[in-house]
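Internal tracking record. Fields below are filled automatically when a chain is submitted to the structure queue. Please do not edit lines marked as system-generated. If the sequence contains nonstandard residues, flag them in the REMARKS field before resubmitting.
Queue: standard
Priority: normal
Entity type: single polypeptide chain
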Amino acid sequence: MDPARSFKILCSLLFLSSILHTEMVAQLALEPFSSGFTRPVSMANAGDSRIFVVEQSGIIRIMDSSGSVNAEPFLDMQSKVRSGGEMGLLGLAFHPDYSETGYFFVNYTTDGPRTNISRYSVSLTDPDRADPESEVVLLTFNQPYENHNGGDIRFGPDGMLYIATGDGGSGGDPQNNSQNLASMLGKILRIDVNNGEPYSVPGDNPFINEADVQKEIWAFGLRNPWRISFDRETGDLWIADVGQNSYEEINFQSALSPGGENYGWRCYEALHEYNFSECTVAGDYVFPVFEIDQNLTGACSVTGGFVYRGSKFPSMTGAYLLTDYCSGQFWSILDSAGIWVAKDQGSFPGHYFSCFGEDQEGEIYVAALSDGEIFRLIDTGTTSRGPAFETPAFRLYPNPAESFLNLESIADDQEFQQVHLYDIWGRDLYTESISGTRFGFSLDHLSPGIYFLEATINGKSTLVKFIRE
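SYSTEM-GENERATED OUTPUT FOLLOWS
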């Protein structure tokens, strides 16, 4: 893994807890756009003004740019889909050259239970209807339980199809599928649908030359990555992974990544140790850029969205938007000079938001599972201020660290005044008043794990995460 990218992720500020003081004013609003859907779980566009809405039972409907819905579905595959609970028709992606190929791809559960990744073709005579007899199953794998199916599929900027799979279900990943490279469960898979029969494995997949692994694996260590998305401008991948009992998480993968990241489950639930029976040192894992504490927020299941790249609301540009299924809370995450800053964007409870969608122009929509409504996200123009920390005025090295940690002020005229060391539960482990532009202290008294260091320079406090190996 690229050390610079790993360092940036490891130094991200990412979790809501009592040690981060926030002042937040809602900025987003929801504008009713369309209705009449039954359990919408995914949305996709085909490079034109239409938005295709996936209903969990196995129906894909077309919504036009005004919110009107076609009377006849684009595709009805209910006879093939096993739906209920977390199962069903879960993902839809259109080929990057859909106008030429007419191909689109679906992710659904069927009897077994098992997951099918299939290709369909549009009708030769009607662009608003698919050919129901055109299915080609590309990839199939069994699901040991009926939950944690993942379900999203997205084409990356490289033209490859990325597939999000859950850990197979039950609770706590009892088979440890997420850490098992011989299993397709708990992974992001990456396949080439333009070559091979019915697909090929890209030659630059990270485990292509390793024995006894699934060559399709791009990244692993995920619990239930319900929704993923690519930033249409940068190509970065965002992964919203549903937590176990305590924490929801958002993972980030740079477009420059060669793949192979281990996002930690079941060793970690977000930043917190979960089951360490078959785990290694913390430095082997890539930790989330944001976590949501269920106990503090009322959250239960993160619904990941998109980075806003539309034109109507410039102040939202570059922000990744997400919500939670239970609480209806919305957040945005923005990279501010190498630091991930999360902002509370308001709460809209009672809708049970299941998915986001992005139209051809980059405007963003969100679907409510409970009432079948589609909302368009708009910017109210109010201010929104996130956690009370800014870009650090110091650097911290090495990270991960084994026995000694160094801090260095970036500017020669800015001196340290105080440092606090916290564990991942927000407990203050160490406090010292200091002076000077450099400071270092021993880590011998710390067990391996994740910690946060808060340093005050010229009256301003900032927080940085580090790993003790």
